[in-house]
C-alpha cells in the first residue's frame, strides 16, 4: 500500500482532483432566474366578490374565495405560458377581444364628456332626418290581374267611379283589399317595391290608376294621406342625447386609432395586390 501511495501517478491524480475541487468551489454559482410573479390582489378579490354577489345574490364564502384565487392563478399561468409559446398570435377571437377592450377604453373616456343642451340642439338640427316620423297612407285597392288590357282597366275604372262596390270588381288575390295607415315600407312589403311611389300622384277621395305592383295592376282609392313630420326637440331629447353620445364615442375612438397609427410604419397592399387577391 505504501509503495502504491508513493507512485507519482497517484500524486498527480490527487493533485488534479484537489485543483478541480477548489476551482468549482470558488466558481460563482449560476444565478437563479427570477420567477415570473403572479399575485392575486385585493382588487382581484373585490371584483370577484362584486360579480359573485350580483349573480348569486349573496357574498361568497371564504372557501369560495380560496377556490377563486387558485383558479385565477391557474388561468394566469396558462395565459402566460400560451403567450410565451405565441399561441395568441394570429388568433382572430383574441384579436377581436383586445380590439373590443381598446374601444371600450375609448368609449369610457368619451362618456366623461357631458353635452350641453346647445350641443344637443345643434346635433338635432343637423340630423333632423333621423328623428322624422314617416308619413302614412290609407287606401282601398282593386286587383285587375297581372296584365289586363287597356279596355279592361278603363271599364273597371268607369264602373268604380260610377259607384260600384269594389268587392264586385276585379280578380281575387291573396292581397289585402285595404291597407293603412301604413308607412312606405309597410306598403311596399305588402305589394312589392315601388308600389308606394306609384301612389304618389293619386288624389284622395277618387279612384285612380292603373298602379302596378309586384303582382300586377291595381286601381286605388286613397282615403287618407299624412305627410312626414319632425317632432319637437323636447319630445326626442333623450334619443338625441343617446345618438350624440354614440357618435361622440365613435369619433373619439377613431381619433385614438388615428393617433396610435402614427407609432407604426404601415404598408398597405397595392392595387395590384388587391386585384390579384380577388382572382
Topology, pairings included?
Elements: H1 2-5, H2 8-26, H3 42-56, H4 62-84, H5 92-111, H6 117-126, E1 136-145, H7 150-161, E2 178-182, H8 184-191, H9 195-198, E3 207-212, E4 217-226, H10 237-261, H11 271-278
Antiparallel strand pairs: 1-2, 1-4, 3-4
Helix pairs in contact: 5-10, 6-10
Task: Explain what the structure shows.
The longest helix is centred in the C-terminal third of the chain and has 25 residues, at 237-261. Strands 2-1-4-3 form a 4-stranded antiparallel sheet. It has 11 helices and 4 strands, in the order H-H-H-H-H-H-E-H-E-H-H-E-E-H-H. Helix 5 crosses helix 10 and helix 6 crosses helix 10. The radius of gyration is 40 Å and the shape is elongated. With 279 residues, it is α+β, with helices and mostly antiparallel strands.
Estimated helix fraction: 40-55%
Distance between the termini: 91 Å
| Overall pLDDT confidence | 84
Written as H for each helix and E for each strand, in order along the chain, the element string is: HHHHHHEHEHHEEHH
Number of helices: 11
Biggest sheet overview = 4 strands, antiparallel
Shape: elongated
Which tags fit this structure?
single chain; 279 residues; alpha+beta
In summary, what is this structure?
The chain is an alpha+beta fold. Helices cover 53% and strands 11% of the residues.
Amino acid at each position: 500500500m505504501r509503495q502504491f501511495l508513493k507512485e507519482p501517478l497517484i500524486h498527480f491524480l490527487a493533485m488534479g482532483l484537489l485543483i478541480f475541487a477548489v476551482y468549482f468551489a470558488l466558481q460563482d454559482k449560476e444565478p437563479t432566474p427570477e420567477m415570473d410573479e403572479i399575485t392575486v390582489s385585493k382588487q382581484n378579490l373585490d371584483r370577484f366578490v362584486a360579480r359573485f354577489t350580483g349573480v348569486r345574490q349573496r357574498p361568497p364564502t371564504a372557501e369560495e374565495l380560496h377556490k377563486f384565487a387558485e383558479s385565477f392563478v391557474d388561468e394566469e399561468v396558462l395565459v402566460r405560458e400560451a403567450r410565451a409559446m405565441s399561441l395568441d398570435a394570429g388568433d382572430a377571437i383574441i384579436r377581436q377581444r383586445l380590439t373590443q377592450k381598446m374601444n371600450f377604453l375609448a368609449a369610457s373616456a368619451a362618456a366623461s364628456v357631458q353635452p350641453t343642451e346647445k350641443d344637443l340642439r345643434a346635433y338635432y338640427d343637423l340630423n333632423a332626418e333621423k328623428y322624422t316620423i314617416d308619413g302614412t297612407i290609407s287606401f282601398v285597392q282593386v286587383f285587375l290581374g297581372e296584365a289586363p288590357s287597356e279596355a279592361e282597366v278603363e271599364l273597371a275604372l268607369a264602373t268604380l267611379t260610377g259607384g260600384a262596390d269594389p268587392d264586385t270588381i276585379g280578380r281575387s288575390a291573396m292581397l289585402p283589399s285595404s291597407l293603412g295607415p301604413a308607412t312606405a315600407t309597410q306598403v311596399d312589403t305588402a305589394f312589392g317595391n315601388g308600389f308606394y311611389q306609384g301612389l304618389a300622384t293619386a288624389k284622395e277621395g277618387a279612384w285612380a290608376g292603373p298602379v302596378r305592383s309586384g303582382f300586377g295592376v291595381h286601381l286605388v282609392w286613397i282615403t287618407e294621406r299624412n305627410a312626414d313630420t319632425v317632432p319637437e326637440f323636447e319630445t326626442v331629447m333623450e334619443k338625441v342625447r343617446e345618438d350624440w353620445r354614440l357618435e361622440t364615442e365613435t369619433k373619439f375612438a377613431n381619433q385614438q386609432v388615428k393617433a396610435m397609427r402614427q407609432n407604426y410604419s404601415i404598408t398597405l397592399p397595392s392595387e395590384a395586390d388587391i386585384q390579384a387577391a380577388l382572382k
